[in-house]
Amino acid sequence: MQSYEVIIIGASASGLMCAIEAGKRGRKVLVLDHANKAGKKILMSGGGRCNFTNYDVSADNYLSHNPHFCKSALSRFTQWDFIAMVERYRIPYHEREHGQLFCNISAKDILKMLLNECKEYGVGIKLKHEIVDIDQQAEGFVIRTDQAEFASESLVIATGGLSIPRMGATPFGYKVAEQFGHRVWPTRAGLVPFTLHDKDKQRFASLSGIAINAIVSTEHKTFRENVLFTHRGLSGPAILQVSSYWQAGEDIRINLLPDISLLDNLLELKQTHPRQQLKTSIATLLPKRLVAVLLDESLANTPLQDLSKQQLESIAPAFHEQTLKPNGTEGYRTAEVTLGGVDCDGLSSKTMESTTTKGLYFIGEVVDVTGWLGGYNFQWAWSSGWCAGQVV
After folding, report:
1. What stretches of the chain show up as alpha helix (H) in DSSP?
2. Cα radius of gyration (the chain)
3. 295 and 163 part of one domain
4. Could you tell me which of 389, 391, 380, 392 has the C-alpha nearest to residue 72?
5. Do 303 and 348 have their domain in common?
6. What is the CATH classification number for the domain harbouring 265?
7. What confidence score (pLDDT) does residue 79 get?
8. What pLDDT, on a 0 to 100 scale, did the predictor assign at position 167?
9. How many structural domains is the chain composed of?
10. Which of 37, 166, 267, 326 is disulfide-compatible with 194, CB 3.0–4.6 A?
11. Residue 298: how many CA atoms within 13 Å on its side-chain side?
12. CA 350, CA 353: separation in Å to the nearest integer?
């Protein structure tokens, strides 16, 4: 049996960060993963450019049954700390809208940085190891894989959630939590496109590929970003953001003209261009295909001069308050994150250690902390991994 002071299960963003920090402290560290490559989710994130953090990070950017839990970790290892690490490695990056930071060249730069740090601090990484069994013993833990047995004083679970199963996602971390008596909140897909009922899918089928800057609201939250019409339903940043707050059966509302009053615009055009057809007037504001779908056909070709104020008032809601009831989401297959997970109330917010099992830690996505789109989930991975790495 091979013995280590720290074993981390999951060569993930949080797992590698924890390993680096533990290695810096001179601990003998091993990272185990069933995958054939470390950091797979890092490599595919941000379209291969890795949205590694955000300039503006606060607890308000996260969902959790314990909304205060993430504050300690985020304040102890901040976005500025990770940015300093990136700059130390001279990785070129750029800012996109809403403070999002991406690699200029490739997500491989971030993974290479983490693996270099692991190597520098003597961290061992063993891939293609399927975990068969975990036992707690007086002096720590015994981890059996399909290839070997390992012993460790500290055990860190950094196995992520259920999102993107083709990348190897499994419920392993939740099962470990339950094995040691931790509550696991029900999980569901987050940051995920919506699917539509057949009637709406047929109605919007011709709009596939159109993106519109819009305000999207659920009963709980509102976001303004792009909405993308797809052949299955709705996607784009605004949709992904609200999907984390949406509950099955609820409506979503979309304001496709957030900066303008359509009624005022049409009343003004009625004075200046009275013979202009209604569809032509609205098509100066939105794509023609979208206007054709949302506008009542019986009014589309009518000149503005022939429409009463009451008729124009009746048109505006289709564009300012388009209400839809999603059929569901595309699920874990395309979800960027998993909502729910290991209950924060059973963990120390400072160290991520189990409050009931000494030496057992949970970090990253497996924990019931889920960030918005925009680099927040990576920042949670860095911060929670760093915190655990200081004490394991």
Report:
1. 13-24, 40-44, 70-76, 79-88, 108-120, 172-179, 198-204, 237-243, 262-272, 278-282, 288-294, 297-300, 309-315, 317-320, 376-389
2. 25
3. no
4. 380
5. no
6. 2.40.30.10
7. 98
8. 82
9. 2
10. 326
11. 4
12. 8
Tokens in use for 374? 């925009």
Q: What is the pLDDT of residue 164?
A: 87
Looking at this protein, which amino acid is placed at residue 209? G
Q: Can you give the pTM of this predicted structure?
A: 0.95
**Gap between the terminal Cα atoms of the chain:** 21
pLDDT for position 231? 92
What is the token pair recorded at 277? Answer: 């057809």
The CA distance from 181 to 345, in Å, is 12
Looking at the fold, whether 155 and 23 belong to one and the same domain comes out as: yes
Are residues 150 and 46 located together in one domain of the fold? yes
Q: Which domain holds residue 360?
A: 2-189+337-389
Measured from the Cβ of residue 175, the count of other Cβ atoms closer than 10 Å reads 14
> What local confidence, expressed as pLDDT, does residue 298 receive?
87
Average pLDDT per block of 10 residues along the chain, 392 residues long: 96 98 98 95 93 98 98 98 98 97 98 98 97 94 97 97 88 97 98 96 94 95 97 96 96 97 94 93 95 91 92 94 96 96 98 98 98 98 98 98
SS3 231: coil
